[in-house]
Amino acid sequence: MPRALSMQQDQLLQQELLRRNDLCANVFLLLRHTGMRIGEAADLSFDCLHASGTDQWAIHVPLGKLKTERMVPVDSFVCELVQRLRFFRSLDPLPADGRLLARSSTREALIRQLRRYLHSVCAEADIAKRIVPHQLRHTYTSEMLRSGVEFLSIMKLLGHASPEMTMLYLDIALTDLQREFHAARSEPRHLAPQPRAQVVSAHAGLDGVVDSLRATQHLVEMFRRTLPDGAPRRCLDHLSNRLTKILSEVRKLDPPGK
After folding, report:
1. Total domains, the chain
2. Which residues pair with residue 50 across a beta bridge?
3. What is the pLDDT of residues 95-139, one digit of tens each?
4. Which one of 10, 93, 135, 180 counts the least CB within 10 Å of its CB?
5. Cα-Cα-Cα-Cα dihedral of 246, 248, 253, 255, to 10°?
6. Quick one: 72 and 125 in the same domain?
7. Final residue before a domain boundary, out of 133, 162, 182
8. Cβ atoms of 213 and 185 closer than 8 Å
9. Which of 133, 162, 179 marks a domain boundary?
10. 199-207 average pLDDT score
């Protein structure tokens, strides 16, 4: 299963997409900030954006891979992306067909075109490692976990039919946190070079790892309490133990009073 993008990859990719600001760039920014699958984006209707309250909006994601549809809450930035894509659709010579993205031939051809575009963006942004569209979905999920969004809410945002699939995303996020921990351990704070670019988050570095671990630990525990005894609960017990051990080791890197 694909992994989430690293912080650097995510930053480089979004910067290049924002710089280009063409149709395909806006599609991939939409994927990054909604967690949609690429096939779901290809099927979006022209009127996919719906008001869900005063200054509140959501995107209607049509039936997808698991034959489920959902409403994904979005912010003003995503609303602007949809409006931009509507503008590009209005310029397309193909007649209106109710879809947000025009298809000169088949749905599969459109998806192939988008995948090729992503490869060219990565090359231009000097991202050496091959990136596939589904990694944007994992990056969105990791961002939700780090922000403290509840497990069941993430499950609904992603359109998963069962908690087991969402658990796979959680397990991958934990593995990524372990990698961050080992990276921090190999380069202690007092030896870390000063960043050459603007810091992305106020909680970058070791503090960010601790915050992410605590948020994930809370999510795991809250969801564990909702489950009856059985394999899923035992799996969460195992993950919770891993988190506790990792958090304990991370905190040793920054002794109190130092």
Report:
1. 2
2. 58
3. 999 999 999 999 999 999 999 999 999 999 999 888 999 999 999
4. 93
5. 170
6. yes
7. 133
8. no
9. 133
10. 52
